Amino acid sequence: MTNDLTYLITDKYNGDASKITQEDKDRLASGEPLAYIIGWVPFLGLKIFLESKPLIPRTETEYWCEKALKEISQTTTRTVRVLDMCAGSGAIGLAVLSHCPQAVVTFIEIDARHCDQIKANALANGIDSGRFEIVQSDVFTNAPDHCYDYILSNPPYIPQDRVLDESVKNFEPSLALFSGADGLAIIRRIFYSIKKYLCNGGQVWIECDSAHAQEVEAMARAQSARATLFPDQYGKARYCVAYY
């Protein structure tokens, strides 16, 4: 609680402790995630605002996203088309736009409030509106008929009966967390349709639950030329990269 209060004062009030409100203290005491109370989180040099209460971007996602950016940056002679699937706050796609000037991004997100949040985050970080589009869609249901070089996704992947920390369970959106009995329902849907939307030589980077990472790798390998699981910064299998 003491550390959270320190971060709150520093990040929300620029170090001025006199500005903290009783409402902020009550929200902290209730277990609400600090990021929601501050109102934003850093992500690869960006400020990702969270007014719509999307899933809070994690450092594990930042870790693999930075590696994807290095891969995308290798293509400099043409426009690279990227899809951020299950975009939430838009952190992944916005990082691509910020760090890869040759990229254009389509954001797909099911919740209209988060679609508005993505647009607000893009404007807040000085992203040219001509470089992205935001589509409200349940996975590929309303997806534009583009050919993507990269599909990047941090989809819902937690099994329905998984016990989570109270701060996550009570405050973060269940739609962005849970995905059926084994946590793989949305990932299955993504892989079912993904070939239609990938360019030849395209790549899919998808975050997954370490407990079911092998199943995700098997799904990817069933359709792609090759697929590899990679660990996060803590050594847990966290994301799969499939090469088509």
Structural overview:
The protein is an alpha/beta fold and 244 residues long. Helices cover 36% and strands 23% of the residues. The protein has nine helices and nine strands. The chain has helices at 2-13, 22-29, 34-38, 59-72, 91-99, 112-124, 166-171, 185-193, 213-223; strands at residues 40-43, 46-49, 80-85, 103-109, 132-136, 148-153, 198-207, 226-231, 237-243. A hairpin with a 2-residue loop joins strand 1 and strand 2. Helix 4 packs parallel to helix 5. The termini are far apart. The model has no long low-confidence stretch (mean pLDDT 95).
Labels describing this entry:
244 residues, alpha/beta, Rossmann fold, two-stranded antiparallel sheet, globular
Which ranges are low-confidence, i.e. pLDDT below 50, for 5 or more consecutive residues? none
**Strand order across the largest sheet:** 5-4-3-6-7-9-8
Structural category is alpha/beta
The main β sheet shows up as: 7 strands, mixed
Specify the CATH class.
Alpha Beta
Mean pLDDT: 95
Please identify which CATH superfamily we are dealing with. Vaccinia Virus protein VP39
Proportion in helices: 25-40%
Radius of gyration: 18 Å
How do the helices and strands follow one another from N- to C-terminus?
Answer: HHHEEHEHEHEEHHEHEE
> According to CATH, what is the topology?
Rossmann fold
- Topology, number of strands: 9
Q: How many DSSP helices? A: 9
Compute the number of structural domains.
Answer: 1
The CATH architecture assignment turns out to be 3-Layer(aba) Sandwich
What sort of overall outline do the alpha carbons produce when their principal axes are compared? globular
Distance between the termini: 47 Å
Strand content: 15-25%
